[in-house]
Write a structure and sequence with these properties.
The chain is an alpha/beta fold. Helices cover 34% and strands 18% of the residues. It has helices spanning 23-35, 59-69, 81-84, 91-101, 113-117, 125-131, 171-179, 190-198, and strands at residues 10-16, 40-45, 76-78, 106-112, 132-139, 159-164. Helix 4 packs parallel to helix 6 (125-131). The longest helix has 13 residues, at 23-35.
């Protein structure tokens, strides 16, 4: 008599520059673990961002800030593999590595609405669809209405939607505020704010 089938381990992947990580990143990670019933969620700071024109803050700082920003969340681990990899950071390479490390794992790729709209421009995007279930973070606006994400943009691609509360927070705005000596305490966790101040990050010359 054979035993019951062992359910697949559910592993989430949440990548980004995290320059710096902020409260909305943390909220998304929390919702991903809860809504997708993840066994683990890997936060993966980008190494060399092929799609960004600006130079990212040093990987060592972004990794340190990410560890502070997500320290309160169980099942969440900050994964430094892309910062250790030479050359551009491609999501398909990261997913391939994770699948090889844990055969049979069920991968969930967490992306934002803007990323979903540009998915077909990603390196080997068709392979990504074979490796992971795409989970799109869609925020409601202040009235509670759904965001602008259009499912037709993914054609026949299987995907799931993560429902998020409205949070008007962006790393671009945080960097701008810091460059102009403005307070960012409501937008980032205190430990991250202290780290930024201690290392004089995002200040203009």
């Amino acid at each position: 008599m054979s035993g019951a089938a062992v359910p697949l381990r559910r592993l989430g992947v949440f990548g980004g520059s995290f320059d710096p990580p902020h409260r909305a990143h943390n909220a998304l990670a929390h919702q991903a673990v809860e809504q997708l019933r993840l066994d683990a969620l890997h936060i993966i700071p980008t190494g060399e961002a092929w799609h960004k024109s600006r130079v990212l803050t040093a990987a060592s700082h972004r990794l340190a800030m990410a560890r502070l920003a997500f320290a309160d969340l169980p099942k969440v681990v900050v994964d430094d593999r892309e910062t250790r990899r030479r050359g551009p950071s491609y999501t398909v390479d990261t997913l391939t590595e994770l699948a090889a490390e844990e055969p049979g794992v069920e991968l969930f790729l967490i992306i934002g609405e803007d990323q979903a709209k540009s998915l077909q421009s990603w390196h080997r995007w068709q392979a990504i669809l074979q490796l992971a279930i795409i989970c799109v973070a869609a925020r409601a606006d202040s009235s509670g209405a759904r965001g602008t994400f259009n499912a037709e943009l993914l054609a026949q691609t299987p995907f799931q939607v993560l429902n998020l509360p409205p949070m008007d927070v962006s790393a671009t705005d945080i960097r701008h505020r810091l460059a102009n000596c403005q307070n960012v305490a409501p937008l980032v966790f205190e430990a991250v704010a202290r780290y930024i101040a201690h290392h004089h990050l995002y200040q203009t010359a």
